[in-house]
């Protein structure tokens, strides 16, 4: 898949790093302090979910989970305390990108791909191999269905976990459907962060200042793999490497 498609990814691991703060009960804020409405998304547009628990007394925690930023607070918190601690914990959480939980080895990558296949593809996609590569300059990932092999660009390693998961899923789906027709997208329809991840990667490609490549082939001349069927889809095009 070229960097224009996914059109140009939720670690990674589905659940990322967690932050925790103790003693929240004594670190409140005056009731008359105006903090404004709670943020509904992070700076990167990831949905924010606030969970109240009456079993929690003083501990506040934040974690990346299933493509969302989850903030857990004690059930007795006032609205003002909730606003204060949600903002504090979001700042801490955003300092630890969701992508920090991305699989670091090929073995971890394989385990993650099998888990994603089980959860979203009924376990039908089972790659013969999946590995990180550093020589894919025009795509986030690529697959060779005939061989059952998948290559994931190490350039996505620092992206949010839900984006990395989308890239892995996209390539897994190619093992079942080579092109980008209706059946291909139907395979991915169950992934809750599908459209968000595609938009994230589009923005990432644009931010790199390289535009969309003109080469319709999805095979990367650097990795010696043949072109993938359906590669002419604009979703598989990516930024042209800087010269």
From TrEMBL:
Q: Tell me which domain of life the UniProt entry assigns to the organism this sequence originates from.
A: Bacteria
InterPro entries documented for this protein: UTP_pyrophosphatase-like (IPR053136), YgjP-like_metallopeptidase (IPR002725)
Sequence segments annotated as region (Disordered) = 1-42, 211-243
The YgjP-like metallopeptidase domain, residue ranges: 133-201
The annotated regions of Acidic residues compositional bias extend over 215-226
What Pfam families does this protein map onto? Answer: YgjP-like (PF01863)
Under which name does UniProt file this protein?
A: M48 family metallopeptidase
Q: Which organism is it from?
A: Arthrobacter mobilis
